[in-house]
Amino acid sequence: LGSPTQVALRGPSAPIDSKTGKVPEALEGESLKILKVSAGNAASQKMDGFQKDKWSGNDQLWWTGGKRGARLDLELPVAADGVYVLELALTKARDYGIAQVLIDDETLGSPIDCFNTPDVITTGVLNFEPRKLSKGLRKLTFEIVGKHTDAVGFRNGVDYVRLVPPTTDKPR
Fold it and tell me: What is the pTM of this model?
């Protein structure tokens, strides 16, 4: 099951509110403060031209020009001390790489293969193991750790992130 040509499974569709077009209480990727980009550029990209999926706010933070080992550091505000599950949705396309997610330089879960062809879609909702976070500004990092053998680039796209209380369901 873990062959280098296998495309990772997707999570469930994002819970986008039909009235607002956004995931409730989410931090939109394109609205997060960029602390540092070690290679390339990160900017907002409208996603209305891609009809095979839906993005919260119909936008994403689009990171281009990255390479293996490059990092994108974003500011992640935490409203109160507590235990949270980081929930996020990324973009998948033929020119997207494999990203490792970190909070305050601590690795969360396994790397996420953001390769998909032929359509541009989201990863769906991905959840990481519960983590104790203190109130204040944390650092959310996406590190490019590689690319699928068929991928033609190392791009990355952040749709949204959300900190949610853990449930009794097992995180993915």
Answer: 0.90
pLDDT of residue 5: 44
Backbone angles phi, psi at 152, to 5 degrees: -110, 20
- CA quadruple 68, 112, 74, 129: dihedral sign: negative
pLDDT in tens, 67-91: 999 999 999 999 999 999 999 999 9
Please give the share of the chain, as a percent, with pLDDT higher than 70: 92
Please say whether the dihedral angle defined by the alpha carbons of residues 123, 120, 64 and 29, taken in this order, is positive or negative.
Answer: negative
The answer, yes or no, to whether the previous bond of 24 is cis (omega within 30 of 0) is no
**Using alpha carbons only, how large is the chain's radius of gyration in Å?**
15
- Closest-CA residue to 90 (of 128, 36, 37): 128
> What CA–CA distance (Å, rounded) separates 39 from 70?
6
Size of the chain in residues: 172
Note the pLDDT of residue 166. Answer: 86
